[in-house]
Amino acid sequence: MTDPIREMRDHWDERWGGGLAAEASTQLLRVSQLLLGRLDGILAEFGLTLARYEALTLLTFSRKSELPLSKLGERLMIHPASVTSIVDKLVEFEYVERVPHHSDRRVVLARVTTSGRQIVERASAVIIAANNGFAGLTDDDLETLIALSVRFRDAVGDVGSTDNSVDGSTGVKGGGRRVDQSRVRRARITRSRSA
Amino acid sequence: MTDPIREMRDHWDERWGGGLAAEASTQLLRVSQLLLGRLDGILAEFGLTLARYEALTLLTFSRKSELPLSKLGERLMIHPASVTSIVDKLVEFEYVERVPHHSDRRVVLARVTTSGRQIVERASAVIIAANNGFAGLTDDDLETLIALSVRFRDAVGDVGSTDNSVDGSTGVKGGGRRVDQSRVRRARITRSRSA
Question: Which portions of the sequence form the region Disordered (chains A, B) (predicted)?
């Protein structure tokens, strides 16, 4: 069976031209779908989704094992509503507890618990052994993938990409190119290829 | 604001090592999310999702503007249940009609209608003008992205990737490496990073 994605490119070129970009976008979305499936497959054994795992990991990375929910969402580059639902689940599993900020009671912190820390360690060991879901690619390939990704994210003004800075508290902007927040928000919300 | 993905890599390296693959996978998933957001943003103006657009496009590419639902699912690399729901929507919009196969009445075909063909032409013109959602990348970059994608898909035994062949009708297998169907299926079903 020939690769349906390659086949699609030929049709596209015959009909409209632009088959290269059409193939690249379809390949990329396919790879991310497979990668996600592999990661989710590993994490499911620990009762985690990738989003929950990423949130937990981030908390264990932070100096005091806790972060304000707003900061957590910023670093995960997800919508506040998603942070809430992820943290709800993690609290339910007792991997995370909600605690008030020591000086500003209006700020709610998510703090990772001992069992949350343990599950991150166990899941991460398996994720690392599985090379984060990758196969068939060398370290150089991964560096190339990162460089292309960063170039794309810069060009579309993604949050935190090299050439941009969005800091709500200071209003300071970096590189000078404006970040199209509506576009970023749309990308955050549109997380799945729904039917 | 530094890139949260870059920052995560440093933490990962300090804690466990393996930061390269961790960054690459997070970058890739982020890019695919942004790309999908851009494509969905364009297609929403036409009342289409990417999945519906891809199905419609594929039908217009086929010689008789029709395909059996099973074939449609195979070429789109999606689950039969997803094909059904996509075709249901397209029928509702009158972009597609369901017709019985001329010789085998058990086989149902999806056939693109005149208005379905028109919407594909209009949407594709915009998609092409937007370089299929890409920005900041040269044609060489896109070829690199494709090559890396194909190498990954080969390594994990994705359907239709260079080194594999899965053809239910003949039972012939290509490259010799077994396709892990359960893994492919899992990737198909797991389409979103759910909370």
Answer: 163-195
